[in-house]
Design brief:
about 120 residues, mainly alpha
Length: about 120
């Protein structure tokens, strides 16, 4: 179970560190080609989502790695799952049902990570 958790957690953490850092550090014009939804969401909200993604990625890895507050890994995985629920809702509200595949896959991985993280506690 521990090996499976680390595989899922590291994959998710790498993805969310990259995606979150882009949202935090780049301007709207740079993000627009990859994330068309940034035109409909205020930039402070985009930055907040990016910060939550970075914090969630750190929460998946650091608590189990340091063996301090390991339960935070479960909370981080649940939080990242909620980010994907919000992303899916946003895409559906914009009529972009064809692009929610990544959201659904990330949501499924977050659920698996939360379940596997319970074995660490």
């Amino acid at each position: 179970m521990h090996v499976a958790y680390w595989i899922v957690a590291v994959l998710l953490a790498l993805f969310y560190l990259y995606a979150g850092a882009k949202k935090v550090l780049q301007d709207k014009e740079t993000l627009r080609p990859m994330m068309g939804w940034v035109d409909t969401v205020p930039m402070p909200a985009v930055r907040t989502i990016g910060a939550l993604e970075v914090l969630g990625a750190l929460g998946l890895v650091l608590p189990p790695l340091t063996d301090v507050a390991v339960g935070l890994a479960v909370a981080a995985a649940v939080g990242l799952g909620l980010v994907q629920v919000g992303g899916t809702a946003l895409h559906l509200s914009r009529g972009e049902a064809r692009v929610i595949g990544l959201n659904v896959a990330l949501l499924a991985l977050a659920v698996v990570a939360a379940w596997l993280a319970t074995s660490l506690v």
